[in-house]
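A quick word before the example. In earlier lectures we treated sequence and structure as two separate objects. From today on, think of them as two lines of the same record. Here is Carbohydrate ABC transporter permease written that way.
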Amino acid sequence: MNPRILGRAGAYLALLAGAVVSLVPFYWMAVASTHDTADLFGSPPPFLPGGALMDNLSRLQSEHHFGRVVANSLGVAVVYTVLSSLISAMCGYGLAKYRFRGRGVLLGAVLATMMIPMQVLLVPLFQMMANLGWTDTYQAVVLPFLANAFGIFLMRQAFLAFPDELIESARIDGAGDLRIFYQVVLPGVRPQLGALVIFTFMSQWNSFIWPLLMLNTEDKFTVPIALNQMIGLSHVDYSGLMLGSFAATVPIMIVFFVFQRQFVAGLLGGAVKG
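And the structure line, produced from the sequence above:
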């Protein structure tokens, strides 16, 4: 048999095996969400869906108001993603296409913030939010981290590859800076913008420490905080925890499938020259 065919078949088998291994935890999470907690510790453990899905869902809703929690997380994540992506794109565009004194120093300062551990910022940020009277509010969760250094750098690199000639042509035609940015430049970096949207949404959706410090009212909890509430000192609702965790992955999967083409193109955009 042709060695190239054997090599390609081996590569496909390796990818298939990797995909199966990656999907096993999700399958177990889905199966566990349809069983009682006692069934999960049986011998052997269940490998097929059970009949306790509706009971688990009803308990999750009655005890933790999970529908409201998902809506809270979705609202916070969407607002944060839109604002943070817009700010990152505008800052990246300014650093890439505008010439001004200290531009390199400013870029270096932005990148240096990526080396500051999150734990160092918690106390001063908490004091700042308390002084503003923003504790237990969503603006305290969203606003402090809108200017994302990774997003700014990613968009700057994308804008550097955008032809200056198109911008100059738009200026000659009488377009202003905002119109050039929104109608000429931004559509040209949709792959990188799509990748940024996915990363930003995932980071906010999975954020735990900062929302836990800021939000005190149960009706305002986000998904990670609500899942943490299911882990007690003497009892853990494993079936409810698995169902909540599985439900929490659905929005991320939807966002990825919507932006997957832009995500892949954004990751590969810097690997192709010419």
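Notice the following. Residues 110 and 219 are 36 Å apart (CA to CA). We will return to this example when we discuss secondary structure assignment.
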